[in-house]
Amino acid sequence: MSDLERQSQFEKALSGLRSLVLSGEFEANSRLPETALADRLGISRTPLRQAMDRLIAEGLLERLESGGCRVASFSVTDVIDSIELRGVLEGTAARLAAERGAAPDVLAEMHEVLALLDQAAWGETQVDFETYVQQNARFHAHLARAAGSSVIEREVERVVRLPLASPSAFLQGQEFLADFQASLRRAQHQHRQLVDAIEHREGSRAEALAREHARLARENLEFVMRGDPRLAERVPGLALVTAA
Predict the structure, then answer these.
(1) Among 20-24, 108-112, 201-205, 207-211, whose mean pLDDT is lowest?
(2) Do residues 91 and 135 make contact, with C-beta atoms less than 8 angstroms apart?
(3) Which residues of 105-124 are buried (b: 16+ CB within 10 A; e: fewer)?
């Protein structure tokens, strides 16, 4: 098997396994059946174990002393801490982007995304949910890049893989939330303020806006933990969160 084929098998294993874990296919603290999983995903056990190692590093799985691994569980406090950490990292990225000056091509891409988000949030009929989710993820990826720091970009990428810490985590179930359209439009207003602060080289303002923006996820978390139980099936990772 070539290196390209091995990488493809690993990516298939990682994507499939992460999806199964976040969807709640396996209960928190349950042991993963390697052989059954390999058969289900159509891969060998070698790329599956590599994918498990990656998810252990990301915190979604935990290694067992007896061998193998189990699905991790998270408290509400764990998720809040992850969201707060993302806010700190994205705030640092925004501040550095403002102080150092973001690359023109990155700013151009951010403006392109802002325009698409405007269209999705303020359409003639209703919010274009699918487009908003896609472009929101792009915006936050560009924000991490804007600092011009591979360290910051890598750490932001790491933290957003934690359950419910992603900027798009709760967008998967927003149709159940009260004032859905108002929530998205509030977020989009903050996106525009962030870019404005970066372009005007206002580091402290940019950092504060990014941290405040991350708190929207915390507000949504607090709502869904009190809300409709169907959200556990719609919001990736929510099934791993305990109310205690």
Answers:
(1) 20-24
(2) no
(3) ebbebbeebbebbeebbeee
Do 210 and 194 contact (CB within 8 A), yes or no?
A: yes
CB 238 within 8 A of CB 231: yes
Structure tokens at 51: 């994918």
Contacts of 84 (CB under 8 A, 6+ apart): 214, 218
Taking CA atoms, 232 is separated from 30, 59, 192, 225, 227, in Å, by 17, 19, 31, 9, 10
Please give the single-letter amino acid code of residue 55: L
Tokens 């390697």 sit on residue: 34
| Chain mean position to CA 95 | 21
Question: How confident is the model over 190-234, as pLDDT tens digits?
Answer: 999 999 999 999 999 999 999 999 998 888 777 777 765 566 566
Give the Cα separation of 189 and 43 in Å (integer).
44
Of 244, 231, 243, the C-alpha closest to 24 is 231
The tens digit of pLDDT for each residue in 29-48 reads 999 999 999 999 999 999 99
